[in-house]
Amino acid sequence: MNIAVIGANTIGSGVAHVAALGDHMVALYDLNPAILKTAQERIARNLDKGVSLGKHTPEEAAKAKAAILPTTQLENCAEADFIIEVGPEKLDIKKKLAEKLDSMTPERVIYATHTESISLTVIASAAQRFPGRVVGMHFFDPVHIVKQVEVVRADQSTQTAIDQAVLLARTMEKEVIVVRDTPGFLVNRVAQVYTREALYLLGEGHVDAETIDRLMVSLDFRQGPFQWVDTLGIDTHLTQMEQLYQATGEAPRFRPHQLLRKMVRANRLGRKTKQGFHKYDE
To answer: Higher pLDDT residue, 267 or 222?
Structure first.
């Protein structure tokens, strides 16, 4: 299958990585050539690490690298069988991309958008020709390691579109859960409450972030709540919390903790600024 990935950010490069390993040809699009170059380097590095860990052979890694074709021309994505948009988490951008690609591609092409919390039904409304082909595919970072993906059903999504998204995800060796278009979907809905309670414990001075993370990892969580937020980006987490808070009619349990805003103002955003709830030297 020919796959187009729109956006060569961390998630987009991860999607291209697993799609190529799933024996698909991948057009990886971004307006910025420098971002594309960084994405290719990241993919190559992660594939090589996979070889060293015995996850795939050198031949499989080489084939996957060759299957990813970078492009700065959106028109080169119009011939794909399946499009996965991984642009910025902004409704206006996602609607514009859905509208444009809907106008450029035949009805058979399935259009998936990766979003953490934006309503798929609203995004699908921008695809005025064929809104039924729009679905959500919520991947988790790092995409080449985390096995789960949420396939999100918009009000307009056809069963054919959902089935095709599930089949594609399984070729990427993903464990799929199909969810309805509800604020926060499933994983983020639960995760936001989990991290919020950890923030309250920290903010009230009961315990430090390191202790909470160490305890949760000892209970077989892959990451503690503060490690997870630092990896995601504290600014991104705050945006998600604000969106969920508004989408749920300002439900008190989703009100963002003031500590998040304080850290964003101080530019302590997690791993990307080398300081968040923890400090990072790499």
So the answer is: 267
**What pLDDT, in 10s, does the model give residues 124-144?**
999 999 999 999 999 998 899
Please state whether the predicted TM-score (pTM) of the whole model is above 0.85. Answer: yes
Token pair 């604020």 is found at 183
**What are 255's two structure tokens?**
């009100």
Residue in 17, 24, 114, 138 annotated catalytic: 138
Task: For residues 252 and 6, give the distance between their C-alpha atoms in angstroms, rounded to a whole number.
Answer: 35
Give the N- to C-terminal CA distance of the chain in Å, as an integer: 37
Distance, CA of 57 to CA of 66 (rounded, Å): 14
CB within 8 Å of 263: residues ≥ 6 apart: 234, 269, 276, 277
Do the bridges between strand 110-113 and strand 134-139 make them parallel or antiparallel, or are there none, so unpaired?
parallel
138 is catalytic: yes
Question: Alpha helix locations (H) across the chain?
Answer: 10-21, 33-52, 58-67, 91-104, 120-124, 159-171, 187-203, 209-218, 225-232, 234-247, 258-265
From the list 140, 135, 14, the residue with the least C-alpha distance to 68 is 14
Where do the domains of the chain lie, and which CATH numbers do they carry? 2-180 (3.40.50.720), 188-273 (1.10.1040.10)
Q: Which tokens hold the place of 114? A: 């990766």
- Strand-pair partners of 152: 136, 179
Q: Phi/psi at 130 (nearest 5 deg)?
A: -135, 70
SS3 105: coil
Q: What are phi and psi of 93, to 5 degrees?
A: -70, -45
Q: Specify whether the CB–CB gap between 84 and 112 falls below 8 A.
A: yes
Tokens of residue 52, six digits:
């060293």
Place of tokens 């530019």: 267
Question: What is the rounded distance in angstroms from the CA atom of residue 31 to the CA atom of residue 168?
Answer: 25
